[in-house]
Write a structure and sequence with these properties.
The structure holds 2 protein chains of 2 kinds. By secondary structure, chain A is of the alpha+beta class. Chain A is built from 3 helices and 4 strands; from the N terminus they run ββααββα. Chain A has one domain (about 5-95): 2-Layer Sandwich (Alpha-Beta Plaits). Chain A has a 4-stranded antiparallel beta sheet. Chain A is elongated, with a radius of gyration of 14 Å. Chain B has 14 helices and 18 strands. Chain B is globular, with a radius of gyration of 24 Å. By secondary structure, chain B is α+β, with helices and mostly antiparallel strands. In chain B, strand 9 and strand 10 form a beta hairpin. The two termini of chain B are about 45 Å apart. In chain B, about 30% of the residues lie in helices and about 25% in strands. Classes of the chains: A alpha+beta, B alpha+beta. The interface between A and B is large, with 41 and 53 residues.
């Protein structure tokens, strides 16, 4: 299944860094996010977009992950040549990630 | 326990006007905050001010103030805003004019000055945070340098009786923290309270983004009434407790989901959200729906503030030229790609001096690039987009021209060509020792 089925997401921007939250709709699915939505997978998913590092922060109390991606916004929101200089649309791309459902 | 109700009347400079009027009319609020100052807005405003010393404040100041001032004055609602941009004193004078025109001559209007730290920044050679370089290297390209001030001067203005407080660059959450400090007498080293207040300010600062804006995704996250979206109200207790809500009957929704998304918006390390007043810790925050459109937020914390203030440095970075043209029907994608190839070759042939170029097909790969977009289906129509960075306006104009000439020199059926060329004022950040900024409160009328 797609990540979209179990999580929602929002993108924020600061300079040339984008952050994307991934939030479980239901608390029970949070461990699935922790196990499968790793920083490495996110970096691979955004090949050609993220030119820097991806760091993941965990927020178990709200069932959320926060990904901080450097060198992602075309040199910075205020100077980027990109149509979506803020990277607002990146969250939708991340929700396309394939998730393996637990065998229950 | 004492509580105050703070309404968030704008989330950016161009935001809708009437949700703030709704908050003032029906929100039973004590304070109305307008956050209107984007990262580079101060630099653009400073350029305007250099041309005309009476300008440099937010362009919608008059419209927003005229819409809410009489109602707020009648109800005793205090207004706090960063619409001062590069000229808070001029914004305060303009607001005083509007107040007089509405028969409210006794309204007390305060400007906060001192965020302009250009001189202090020029004395040293502070390193830029975002790229290798320093203030000196940006040299005469620098337009402005403004420190993100904290809540203290705004709280001081409120305590001195201000009905309207107008700042330039200040941290966005601080606009909300200020009335809490003023109303509850919080100590400026009570890090946990300041951390809780910062959580509240951060959640509220983008207005509609916590009431259902920037959220809806049909079939997954449905939101009713986005055309009449209600803006948020924070009910804050003197112990830092918080309930986020909105005017009953307005559009949108306040849910645990909207609050969670906004909590992490533009946040990096959730344990260290750096603010001028406190290092806020969002990592233990809990979010609970207690009634329809009422969400309780607990668990915000804080640790000591840092010794530096973040400063936004506006500088003339480059020029950007751009052109677009559309193709449709069978073969649209192939013609779009051919068009891009032609422009790529033309820019080389004619020697356009661009340091960076970007070739997009809108509808195919313009948002996430060719790798992420590789699975996309063939669209009915595509829009060619070429943009490039140049050192001057003359070169920037040539980029759009090479797209426009596709009309008569390019693939069949190209329509709707459009072009632009603009100067880019970009923003870089430096850290300034906090004692080098000296914010002050100035009441208009007390001016010479």
């Amino acid at each position: 299944m797609k990540l979209r089925e179990i999580a929602h997401s929002r993108t924020g921007d600061k300079g040339n860094t984008s952050n994307i939250s991934v939030i479980a709709y239901e608390a029970k699915d949070y461990p699935l996010l922790v196990a499968q939505v790793t920083a490495e997978r996110v970096r691979a998913h955004f090949a050609g977009v993220v030119e820097g590092s991806v760091v993941r922060y965990e927020l178990p109390r709200i069932g959320a992950l926060n990904f901080v991606m450097t060198e992602t916004l075309g040199g910075g929101v205020t100077r980027s040549l990109a149509l979506d200089a803020h990277g607002k649309s990146l969250s939708s791309a991340l929700l396309d990630l394939e998730i393996e459902a637990p065998a229950d | 326990m004492r509580t105050i109700r703070i309404g968030s009347g704008a989330g950016y400079s161009g935001d809708r006007i009437e949700p703030a009027v709704e908050l003032a009319e029906k929100g039973d609020i004590d304070y109305l905050v307008f956050e209107c100052l984007g990262e580079r807005t101060v630099a653009l405003a400073q350029q305007a001010r250099l041309k005309n010393p009476d300008t440099g404040h937010d362009p919608l100041l008059e419209e927003r103030m005229s819409a809410v001032l009489p109602l707020c004055a009648k109800k005793g609602i205090k207004i706090i805003t960063n619409m001062g941009a590069a000229n808070p004193v001029a914004a305060a004078r303009k607001t005083a004019e509007i107040a007089r025109a509405h028969g409210l001559p006794s309204l007390k209007i305060a400007a906060i000055v001192g965020d302009d730290v250009l001189d202090a920044c020029k004395q040293g050679d502070l390193p830029v945070l975002e790229f290798p370089g320093s203030m000196k290297q940006l040299g005469n390209r620098i337009v402005s340098a403004n420190a993100y001030l904290g809540a203290e001067p705004m709280a001081e203005a409120l305590s001195a009786g201000a009905d309207v407080v107008i700042t330039g660059r200040a941290s966005d959450p601080a606009l909300f923290l200020a009335p809490m400090i003023h109303a509850f007498g919080w100590a400026m080293d009570d890090w946990n309270l300041l951390g809780k207040g910062t959580v509240a300010g951060h959640l509220l600062e983008c207005a509609g983004q916590i009431t259902g804006g920037y959220f809806a995704d049909p079939g997954y996250k449905d939101v009713a009434g986005l055309a009449r979206l209600g803006f948020p109200i924070g009910e804050v207790g003197e112990d830092g407790s918080l309930v986020v809500t909105k005017v009953s009957g307005s559009g949108g929704a306040v849910t645990a989901q909207t609050c969670k998304e906004q909590l992490l918006y533009e946040v990096h390390d959730p344990k260290r959200y750096l603010q001028p007043d406190v290092t806020a810790d969002f990592s233990e925050v809990e979010i609970e729906e207690i009634a329809p459109d009422r969400v309780r937020i607990t668990g915000g914390r804080g640790t000591a503030r840092t010794d530096t203030l973040k400063v936004s440095v506006g500088y003339v970075d480059s020029f950007i030229g751009e052109g677009q043209i559309s193709y449709a029907g069978p073969g649209a994608l192939a013609r779009g790609r051919l068009a891009l190839d032609i422009v790529r070759e033309r820019l080389k042939l004619t020697g356009v001096a661009a340091s960076e170029l970007r070739f997009d097909l809108i509808g195919v790969d313009s948002l996430h690039g060719p790798q992420v977009s590789a699975q996309a289906n063939e669209p009915y129509e595509v829009r060619v987009r070429v943009s490039g960075r140049t050192e001057n306006m003359r070169e920037a104009i040539r980029i759009g021209n090479e797209v426009e000439t596709l009309y008569t020199n390019g693939p069949a059926g190209g329509g709707g060509a459009w072009k632009s060329a603009r100067e880019v004022v970009a923003v870089a950040s430096v850290l300034l020792p906090r004692e080098q900024a000296a914010p002050q409160v100035r009441f208009v009328g007390a001016e010479p």
